[in-house]
Amino acid sequence: MKNDKLRRSLFIGGFLVLVMTSLLFAQGAPVAPPPPIAGEDLWRQGLKPLAVERVSPGVFSLGEIKIYKETKSIAFPAKINMDKGLLEYILVKSSGKTHESLLRTDVDPYHLQIAFLLLGFEGTDRPIIEQGSDEKPKGDPVEILIDYTKKSDGAVKERSERIKTEEWVARKTNGNLRATGTLDWIYTGSVVNQGQFIAQVSGSIIAIFRDPAALIDNASPGGESDEIWFVKEGMVPPVGTPVTVTIKAKR
């Protein structure tokens, strides 16, 4: 356990250049990205270095990610990836496990991790040991919201809609699909293994079937099962529909 904590501390140290310069949030100058993490040449793997830039008072950008200081939240673009079927993830990178994820995004987990750290999220140094663990993941409670444009039936008019992620997910209970109710989402911060930031390697961002690799995990009852979570058919827009994912600290 001490070794796990040390590895995580060393990894987070790779972000310190950026996190310490977060004090420049009060100024207008761009903030340089951190150097590559020791033991992991991310830049050569195609990960682009990005600067944090001030958009408006209290609002900053890191590539396509918007960072909101006052609400302790981030927002970024994604797309509908599935409109039916069994789920293990709510969100993955487009190069990740898209065959079992509700949403996909081109935003890198590494950059999302930077955004979370800038806002003061801590995650956990006691990650679950395996996918589907009976142990509840520990970390910072968060809320996950989805914004999208909805067309009225038979009309040209469009309107903006905001929903909780759970509204597009069904849970199988006694052989029937039912509403999930509110789920307990936890920012864990993923894990580091042999110098590799596993969220970046796997592309796993939000898991509904518990996964230590994901940045955000499901602490709700049933999170240990990969057989009960389904897309709520008929509620989700067509595959490819653009959405905005907002992840905020749960008050």
Summary, kept brief:
The protein has four helices and 17 strands. The chain is mainly β and 251 residues long.
Number of helices: 4
Work out the count of structural domains. 1
Give average pLDDT, whole number: 86
The coarse silhouette is globular
Major sheet: 12 strands, mixed
Q: Rg from C-alpha positions?
A: 18 Å
Number of strands: 17
Q: Assign a percent range to the helix content.
A: 10-25%
Low-confidence stretches: 1-26, 31-40
Distance between the termini: 29 Å
The secondary structure category is mainly beta
Order of helix and strand elements from N to C terminus: HHEEEEEEHEEEEEEEHEEEE
Q: What amount of the residues lies in strands?
A: 25-35%
Please render the helix and strand layout as text.
Blueprint: H1 2-13, H2 16-20, E1 52-56, E2 59-62, E3 65-68, E4 73-80, E5 89-93, E6 101-105, H3 109-118, E7 140-151, E8 158-164, E9 169-173, E10 176-179, E11 185-187, E12 192-193, E13 196-197, H4 198-202, E14 204-207, E15 216-218, E16 229-231, E17 242-249
Parallel strand pairs: 5-6
Antiparallel strand pairs: 1-2, 2-3, 3-4, 4-6, 4-17, 5-14, 7-8, 7-11, 7-17, 9-10, 9-16, 11-15, 12-13
